[in-house]
Amino acid sequence: MLKVSSLSCGYGQKIIISSVSLDIKSGEFFGIIGPNGSGKTTLLRALSRVIAPVKGEVVLDGKNIREVPLREFARRVSVVSQTVPIADMTVGEFVLLGRLPHFGSMQFVESTHDRDVAHRCMELTDSLRLKDEPVAHLSGGERQLAQIARALAQEPRLLLLDEPTAHLDISHQVAIMDLLRKLVRELNLTVAMVLHDLNLASEYCDRLALISEGGVYKAGTPQEVIDYSIIEKVYKTVVVVNKNPVSGKPYVFIVPGDELQKSRNGR
After folding, report:
1. How many structural domains are present in the chain?
2. What is the C-alpha to C-alpha distance for residues 53 and 9, in angstroms, rounded to an integer?
């Protein structure tokens, strides 16, 4: 569905991502992981047309995304950023903004169909109960649900998310990730997301791309990427990787420095 070929990009004269190639398949839950400053968010911004490539290209369904008209691109690709704007509007009004790419040339207000789509998206994300609440009054987890609902209201085929679980407690993290997996399975939506949490990435994603120093260090299934030797080399810290006893997916355990020292001293 989405193919990245020899992509290099950055900000001004500074290149952050260099010669990155990867592909995201239709109906896939794809994770982008890597240390701070490795280029994960820059890569996502290139996929979402926020920044332009210096070299290489991003191809969506066989066509370079820079050649796709913006309105058409917004009908096919939705983006959920790290932070939700503190908008002076209700959740219902906020979600309806996702219908803008579908407005006709002389349409200035939402139609009955637009309202029906927004209503359905709020139902899917369990945010319908918040319909009349001001966005500014929501908790972090509720804002993320509202933002995902707005993104779904665009009726995209591809959903790009930048650390949607950042700053959320464990219950909200699981709720967001469960929701995204449900959307992939039930709507045949394709999801590509940046994640810091290696265990969430391992547990939920079909495939992963591990970014290091602006390039793809390793891409593959969680079993292929979440390997202790790979994680130690890229993150420069000692870890233990075992299987989750329930799912069998790789699970990363950190090793505190003092415990490591005790182990090396034979105590």
Report:
1. 1
2. 5
